Amino acid sequence: MKHLLYTLCLLLCLGVTSCNDNFLDITPVDRYSDATVWTDEALVNTFVNNIYRGQKWGFHTVMLSALCDEAMEVWSWESQPVVMSELSPSYQGILAPNYYVLSFNNITWNNLYTNIRACNLFFENVEAYGLDSDAIQQLRGEVHYLRAYFYYWLLIQWGGVPLIDRTFDPSDDMLVARNTFEETVEFIVKDLDAAAEILPVEGDKARATKGAALALKARVLLYAASDLYASQSQWASGYDHPELIGYVGGDRQARWQQAKDAAKAVMDLGVYGLYGEGKTFATVEEATQNYTDIFLCHNSEEDIMLMYYDINHNQSDWQYPRFGLFNEPNGYHGWGGNTPTGQMVDSYEMADGTSFSWDNPEHAAHPYVGREPRFYASVSYDGSKWRQRPDDVITYDSEGIIQTGYYEQADGSYSAGIDTRQGPFENWNATYTGYYMRKFIDPTVNHQYNLQSWPWRQLRYAEVLLNYAEACIELGQYDEARSYINRIRQRAGMPDIPASVTGDELRERYRHERKIELAYEQHRYFDIRRWMIAPEAIQPAQGIDIRYPYGGGDPTYTVIESVQDRQWNDKAYFMPIYLDEMQKNNLLIQNPLY
């Protein structure tokens, strides 16, 4: 019986084969062949759209801000090893490839190279299939931008990296050595120049334009001219390959000039401006609202490159874009995830342009009074007005006032405010520092249930002006630098930096301005490294303890010196190359001090 069944089956198979000798040539119904993709412009466009998804989304659960001195992540999702300088080739904490918290997955070594391969595949196939329409040419410019973008993330984390501009076949020798830092910068700039040559000046800001290519070029050249990449002998003495982590020759002043010229090229396009520039603000509240609105609109003259989250492909992911939920206070059923450090809060100036200081008795008694507009637009602090409380919380607070303080009772004990870690609602998500992030969060949205749809700003014009000003300072062009810094300050409702401020003092004022204007926008993590100020910046995170006396009256404020341990080691100027990459490719050279 078994023999009969086997024979029948064999005959059926032979019959099928004899009826269709070409059955292996049937086009799959569940996927596209290469020939189909690369002869259909719509499918080529879809291929490029998928490469765009590899960009770094800034509104994920944990932000880069929590890995430097701007903020603290409250869930202990392996971010503290980063601020403790504990990473190694075999352990990268939250920055590791495929770590389950996906905040940084797109900027890991392997995923960046995966996206670079997709870019190379695009270039090879449009050439092989002879695609040359206007639409394809624009896509060619966009992919030059995207490949440069992915290499930019490799550069600022690892220094010089293997420059791969083609795809590999299984028979190819895949062992490739690292290129020098200088060669990597030049490769990125070449791609961005090619993109700028092709792309239109204006267009869909969620896709690369000429302005985006030039703005990214300005950032790359500014970074490359910075202290870190000219000072290997100071912090990595004895490292045998300084060319991998910076320049080993050349004219540094010429590099600053290139950075200045690159930023000026964006300015000369004449299509960008500062949101609200030229307005006269009668009150701090008006200036606060103007700065708030920069990030609560879908597009403005300040935007150069935007990124919208691909909700359609990511709805099943618990980390899909719930930025308000991730960061609102627990008294709104928020997760309070990336909370400003006390040091960051103290960095915001007074409205008159003077520095805030706890040593000033008036400041210490009323620390949140008379501060600059960007403070009120960026930080939720005890006593600040937010939005209406959820239905189950409103009986505790009908006015929507942030409560991170403690209230003395008749017996001398203290009851905790709604938004503290001892409060009555979801206190496991609450702040340790006494502050919450306010910037980017839409107060009209109920973030417990609903999404806000505002884009992440990859590039905005304020950064370009600041980049230009920094290059001017390093070239000794202080008047020119000051005029552009003051444009940023005026738009923020702040007084000008006086003409008497030059040299090192102006450099410090500039760095402060950049810290405040670009707060939480993925710059500070790299700024403290390229300026080599990380040893001073990476200190234990401070918080605030606020106590209200029984019967009412003004609270007292006590700085908590450490709510999270942090320490700096010079090896953290660069990321280590992952151990498995080193084992797969014996031509790779590890970064110093690892």
Structure report:
This protein is α+β, with helices and mostly antiparallel strands and 594 residues long. It has a domain at 35-58 and 84-269 and 573-584: Alpha Horseshoe (Serine Threonine Protein Phosphatase 5, Tetratricopeptide repeat). Helices cover 39% and strands 7% of the residues. The protein has helices spanning 2-19, 34-37, 41-52, 80-83, 109-128, 134-158, 181-198, 210-224, 232-235, 252-267, 284-294, 311-314, 323-327, 342-347, 361-365, 373-378, 461-474, 478-491, 503-517, 524-530, 534-537, 579-584, and strands spanning 71-73, 303-307, 338-340, 379-380, 406-408, 414-416, 436-437, 456-460, 541-548, 556-564. A four-stranded mixed sheet has the order 6-5-9-10, with no helix packed on it. It has a two-stranded antiparallel sheet with strand order 1-3. Strands 2-8 form a two-stranded antiparallel ribbon. Helix 8 packs antiparallel against helix 10 (252-267) and helix 17 (461-474) runs antiparallel to helix 19. The protein starts with a helix and ends in a 10-residue tail after the last helix.
Count of helical stretches? 22
For the report, how would you describe the main beta sheet? 4 strands, mixed
Backbone structural class:
alpha+beta
User: Which bin fits the share of residues in helices?
Assistant: 25-40%
The CATH topology assignment of the domain at 35-58 and 84-269 and 573-584 is Serine Threonine Protein Phosphatase 5, Tetratricopeptide repeat
**Count of individual beta strands:** 10
Distance between termini?
A: 68 Å
